[in-house]
Design brief:
Distance between the termini: 20 Å
Strand content: 15-25%
Radius of gyration: 22 Å
Largest sheet: 6 strands, mixed
Strand order of the largest sheet: 3-2-1-4-5-6
Order of helices and strands: HHHEEEHEHEEHHHHEE
Number of helices: 9
Structural class: alpha/beta
Shape: globular
Oligomer: single chain
Length: about 290
Amino acid sequence: MKRLSKEKQVQVIAAMTEGMGINAITRITGVAKNTVLKLLVDLGEACGEYMDAKMRNLTCKRIECDEIWSFCHSKAKNVPEDKKGTLGYGDLWTWIAIDADSKLVPCFHVGRRDAEAAKEFIDDLADRLANRIQLTTDGYKPYLEAVEGAFGSEIDFAQLVKLYGHAPDEVRYSPAPFLATKKTWIAGKPKRKLVSTSYVERQNLTVRMNNRRFTRLTLGFSKKVANHINSLSIHYMVYNYVRIHKTLRCTPAMAAGITKRVWEIEDVVNLLPEPESKPRGPYKKKNREMELV
């Protein structure tokens, strides 16, 4: 099969990371849907492997964590009976960590919202850090055991709980009125004025704006959990290495000291492995045609 040109690959990935859906990309670029999905899988895996290798020995000082909801295949109430309880059908949660200073996203985890997912996510985060950090999460209880198991006493940990009133019943999608915040000390000596989840909550908005699979009330939701993960790998590769943060005036990866330059989409596409060329065998002439033998 002839490989998609580099120019077209860049065009597809640029559209994908600007919040465009797969079907819209095929209409705009003229690239077949299966080809777009194949590029999503191949590049997503390459980006995931690259960030997994590079996001190590990080010197972050303040980390914020949160979870963002989405769904795969169908909403929970519409999941077939034989698929209930299977990951990739119904509710899907993305656990996100962000460095409050460099705005780097060192890792994310896609799964359920339970103690097992919390442990996998926090263990992964701990493996990437080179020093003691101050960590802030929301009040979700599984964080307590997960953080203790991953960091022990070598962490300054606090939780921020936001208190809301009752939302008016007639306003379906309006948030409940905000009342107050409650900061709870958990471990170490976290600085009270630095206990915040504002940056990671803003990162949740960035995901919903730039990844069509998270856009509410559309048909852009993921149908396969593997494609969902690969799309996030591409999103965070572009977010960390390509996009210049308006406050920092450099990319998060530059602010964190992981790279010294601003990447282009083409640099991300270059992470794709070179296609394997099939060796051609000897041929013979038969009926004035060349045939492989």
